[in-house]
Amino acid sequence: MSSRGIDGPLLLDTHVWIWLMEAVPERLGPVTRALVDQGAVRNGLRVSAMSAWEVAMLESRGRVSLTLDCRAWMRRSLAAPGLQLQALTPDIAIESTRLPGDPGDDPVDRILIATARLTGSTLATRDQRILDYAATGRLRAVAAGD
Questions:
Q1: CATH of 10-143, one of 3.30.460.80, 3.40.50.1010, 1.20.1270.90, 3.40.350.10
Q2: What separation in angstroms does the CA of 141 have from each of 4, 66, 129, 144?
């Protein structure tokens, strides 16, 4: 993926969203950073409702530390320029159970993949399993470390 841009929205995987909101720029490569900046300018960044759930779950279990209380972090993060919350629709839920090939069994990953596929988004992730799935041509994705 080049830094020239992508067609359609950029869907942030949960970890990419956390890194972006927690200002951990070294985790995002220059191509991904450029895509995020472009997406913010054109109101083209998306975060799945499942990622909001996953952040809350990870924080409640002590697997991630946030700089603010989880509710305050969520409000601030969802108000970021250019970012929109992508609803979990019935079509996305159904698609997540009917994905072609082998996207793995992680339900949140499957929801994110289905969301990207149905909304015409490119998924920004560092998850190698998702990147391998994208390499089969069934998903548009960008490696977050690029």
A1: 3.40.50.1010
A2: 15, 26, 11, 9
